[in-house]
Amino acid sequence: MKINKILYLLLALFTLTFSACDPIVDEQHLTNSTDVAGVKLVATQSTPGGNKITLNMTSPGITGYWDYGLDKALTNEVTFVYPIPGKATFTYVGTLGAEFFTKTIDVQIDKLDTPLDQDWYDLVGTNTAAGKTWVFDGTQGSGKLWWFMSPNGSAESAMTFWWNAGDCCPPSDALGKMHFDLNGAANYNHYETASATPTKGNFKLDIKNKQLTIINSKMLGYAAGNADGVYTIVTLEEDKMILYLSNSETYGTGWTFVFKPE
Prior knowledge:
The structure is a single chain. The chain has two domains: 36-109, Sandwich (Immunoglobulin-like), CATH 2.60.40.10; 118-261, Lipocalin, CATH 2.40.128. The chain is built from three helices and 16 strands. The protein has helices at residues 2-21, 118-124, 165-168, and strands at 41-45, 52-57, 63-67, 72-73, 77-81, 86-95, 100-109, 132-136, 147-150, 177-181, 187-191, 199-206, 211-215, 230-237, 240-245, 254-261. The protein has an eight-stranded antiparallel β-barrel with strand order 8-10-11-12-13-14-15-16. Strands 4-3-6-7 form a four-stranded antiparallel sheet, with no helix packed on it. The longest helix has 20 residues, at 2-21. It is elongated and about 65 Å long. 25% of the residues are buried. Mean pLDDT is 91; it is low at 5-11 and 16-22.
């Protein structure tokens, strides 16, 4: 009899234990608060056709961010000065509740009536549509440091040279040039020689993160190797530009590029 009571007690204990381990599931299904057509995007210019722009996503219940080309803003409203005249398309990326979406808005920019950050003028010149041409600040045998191996990992060591490659073994485009302008887009042209047909592409100037990205073309001195086209800006002034590559794909080191206006 005692054995039966003990068995019943153990059975009850196990039942309670495993019942307590069963999760209580409160099933909640995400639903959309609206559809993409119901998401309202508003663009306001400080002056008619001007380049100071405020983008705003005004629909309630929507979260996301703006991608306005120059940067991303993790907010529903952002104000910025845009450097390129013409029609610009800006993108809002967000969630309706149960699904993600993207939606764009076009803005026509007819005049650059709000001054740009000085870095833009240093890179492309004050006549931003005409642009600016850069060449290497040195030639083979000059003894100058203009295309050289440097320590990898940090731009702080960009001007520490390990090997002055430009002086003995310059790249094939050592006498070439590159041109930047903002004539309807962020245009970039690479010239293998001074008179060669250019390889046309685009560029992105990230002032906040001190980066210059070459898109669908080549950096002057591309023999150092850099598939993603992203370079750290060490110096950007009216008469000098120094770029740094933290990991040369050709040499497995850092690499430094020194340029001057043509």
